[in-house]
Write a structure and sequence with these properties.
The chain is mainly beta. It contains seven helices and 52 strands.
Length: about 700
């Protein structure tokens, strides 16, 4: 008889049992019940003196109540872990997408071997994933443990492991407990970053819950162990190479727009994070090749063998053509911080350094109007003040709004949006789950409150740049008929009409006088036009249509259609008549930086190759390329090119997330990180100041 201590409780077994071992050699996309094979042997040696029959019965009862029996050891090589599977339970490799951005790659089930909990159909054309969906898919008394690879909506940043060799520290604060949101369901949910992947474990138990099942789940999770080798996927290899990167190349923040992007499991090209950092992982034989590229600065390469050993290669450094604050530190000792300074909007400059962000507003004569410590500025027309909780400051209008405390239940908190000119700000609230209320602020003052409405399939409101807004709602408690509700820029109700079926992709027309939506499910290129009269017409815009904007104070909208990146066209649609006014090809061979739609001209800002014939070949194509900023003025009437402007000086890189047009009153500005300018229609039409 063997006596051991497990989590402070004594457990007994009459002899060591033979153990089966389960190996997962499948790719992440495979699915099926995983086989088990027997390994190990019975304990050799003399049997100890047996206690009496009554004592044996007592010991067996205690052992059954305190120590769950394990049936197999599951080993997952792609993700690098193993754990003990309770006897009678099954393990299944899956590839099921849930909640838009996550993938269930493994499940452990107490009853049904083929059970995989995914998105649940809650009504006609309505799907959801959450506690209710999990509860509905479990049978009474059933247990499901899902292993989930988390992702999105933006690129995930690579970082250090948040757990060691097991999950014991996490289990100390994540015991199984009854859900306060879904009666009849108990859970233990937690996540961690390991081997370059963000993983979450969802253990779900539906009542009536056997006490033995609780112990089985926790015992299984306590048996969890991470493997150091063999390296099983591209993300794992990247994480090992990332650890070997020079510290000066690792951002202190792990925000996706600052960190190195995390590649997918097979190590395909990850692209880059906001055109700054890129990672490529490829496997040849038993060796992974990992390359980190800091655009226009250099590339760092590593070889990672499947046994986890990392071998650095000679880095490649490119001539620098970026602002100094983007360069890694090149001084002995610890850097005390490089200030990053850039224009956010006209006369509004951000300075980021020493862990703080300071915004400075300037008068037109260059004097300082005001300053404030804020959070990092976003693309919205406001910023959150660092010194005042729940207070926002307008970027392009001088107002402050202090909101009441957020609800204790985070899922009742809503969206906050503002027009880029800061004129209109809308706060979304949820007084109770399933309802939605909109508070309209104009020039920083609360002017209207709309609702409550029955929220349609977790859709938020949509805000137009002129301040008009709209949202999808349910018509009544039956939740069978969706409607469109629109508001004018003052927050006044414009119309509320039936959609006629499931919809998605709301686009509100200027003034709230109309709205576009797409059938869901349905033709992805079909657009439905609604006014106060209801559904007026349907029109197909092919292929792969992308909405770009509205001609001011009209019902004419610009769409981009494309096949790949070569065949790109623009179409102007008049929704009053249902006619396509014109269609033109993309006027440049470069990358779009921004669009501005005016009554007379439509402006395209472009980063195009300079000169196209002089581009040099390189293993990193962007390293040797030079780009020049150009503007094309297109006639809103017929789509012809009215004028063109091109900069004199080429650049090694542009920042598409920072370049933007902004209309303030009657003036149109173009803003870059280092400069901003007013673009005048008179100059375009007269072909002055470089326009030709």
């Amino acid at each position: 008889m063997k006596i051991t201590l497990v989590s402070g409780l004594a457990s007994w077994s009459l002899h060591p049992r033979p153990r089966r071992h389960c190996e997962h050699d499948r790719s992440p996309g495979s699915a099926g019940i995983l086989p088990a094979r027997a390994t190990g042997s019975r304990h050799a040696g003399k049997m100890p003196a047996l206690p009496g029959i009554r004592a044996i019965g007592t010991l067996i009862a205690l052992a059954g109540s305190l120590t769950p029996a394990f049936g197999a050891t599951h080993q997952n090589r792609p993700y690098g872990f193993e754990f003990e599977v309770p006897e009678g339970w099954s393990v299944r490799a899956t590839n099921v997408s849930v909640a838009h951005y996550s993938d269930v790659f493994l499940t452990v089930n107490s009853r049904r071997p083929d059970l995989v909990i995914g998105d649940w159909q809650s009504g006609p054309g309505a799907w959801e994933f959450g506690l209710r969906a999990i509860y509905q898919q479990l049978q009474p008394g059933e247990v499901n443990v899902a292993f989930v690879l988390l992702g999105g909506p933006g690129p995930l940043a690579m970082g250090s492991d948040t757990v060691g060799n097991d999950l014991v520290p996490l289990l100390a604060t994540n015991a199984i407990k009854a859900s306060d949101q879904q009666p009849g369901l108990s859970q233990s949910n937690f996540g961690f970053f390991k081997h370059g992947m963000l993983i979450s474990i969802w253990a779900s138990l539906r009542e009536p819950i056997a006490e033995g099942d609780r112990r089985k789940v926790m015992a299984m999770l306590r048996s969890f162990r991470f493997l150091d080798a063999p390296v099983g996927c591209g993300a794992w290899a990247e994480s090992l190479a990332w650890e070997a990167l020079p510290e000066t190349l690792k951002p202190s923040s792990l925000e996706s727009w600052e960190g190195w992007p995390q590649v997918c499991q097979n190590g395909a090209d990850s692209g880059s994070s906001y055109e700054r950092r890129g990672v490529v992982v490829a496997k040849t034989g038993s060796v992974y090749s990992v390359q980190f590229t800091l655009n226009s600065i250099g590339a760092w390469r590593y070889s990672v063998s499947t046994d986890g050993k990392v071998q650095p290669e000679q880095p490649v450094i490119y001539p620098v053509g970026v602002p100094p604050w983007q360069m890694p530190t090149d001084l002995p000792g610890e850097s005390k911080g490089k200030p990053e300074t850039f224009w956010v909007d006209p006369y509004v400059q951000a300075s980021v350094g020493l862990g703080k962000t300071t915004l400075t507003w300037y008068n037109k004569d260059g004097s300082i109007k005001r300053q404030a410590a804020t959070q990092y500025p976003s693309v919205e027309g406001f910023v959150h003040l660092a010194s005042l909780e729940r207070t926002i400051q307008g970027l392009n209008e001088d107002w402050r709004i202090n909101f009441p405390s957020e609800p204790a239940k985070p899922w009742l908190a809503g969206l906050l949006r503002s027009t880029r000119n800061s004129r209109v700000c809308i706060r979304e609230r949820h007084p109770e789950q399933g309802t939605i209320v909109l508070d309209f602020y104009v020039h920083g003052k609360l002017t209207e409150t709309a609702g409550p409405f029955l929220q349609y399939m977790a859709n938020d409101f949509e805000l137009n740049e002129d301040g008009s807004a709209g949202l999808f709602v349910w018509k009544d408690e039956s939740k069978t008929r969706p409607q469109i509700v629109t508001f004018d820029p003052a927050g006044k109700l414009r119309f509320r009409v039936d959609c006629g079926g499931p919809v998605t992709g709301l686009i509100v027309a200027p003034g709230g006088k109309g709205a576009l939506a797409q059938p869901n499910p349905g033709e992805q290129n079909a657009f439905l036009w609604f006014t106060e009269r209801g559904k007026v017409r349907s029109m197909a815009i092919n292929p792969s249509a992308q909405f770009l904007g509205w001609i001011p104070e009209s019902r004419k909208s610009l769409f981009m259609t494309e096949i790949g990146t070569e065949d790109r066209h623009f179409q102007l649609i008049d929704w009053d008549t249902g006619k396509r006014l014109w269609q033109i090809p993309w006027p440049s061979d470069g990358q779009a930086l921004g669009y501005s739609l005016g009554e007379k001209v439509i402006l395209f800002a472009v980063a195009q190759p300079y000169p196209a014939s002089a581009q040099k070949s390189s293993d990193n194509a962007n390293a040797e390329k030079q780009w020049v900023r150009a503007f094309y003025a297109i006639s809103a009437q017929d789509g012809s090119i009215v004028a063109r402007w091109q900069a004199l000086f080429p650049h090694r890189s542009f920042y598409p997330d920072r370049d933007h047009f902004l209309r303030l009153g009657e003036k149109l500005f173009y803003v870059t990180v280092e400069d901003f300018t007013e673009i005048k229609l008179a100059d375009i039409m007269a072909k002055e100041h470089g326009w030709e």
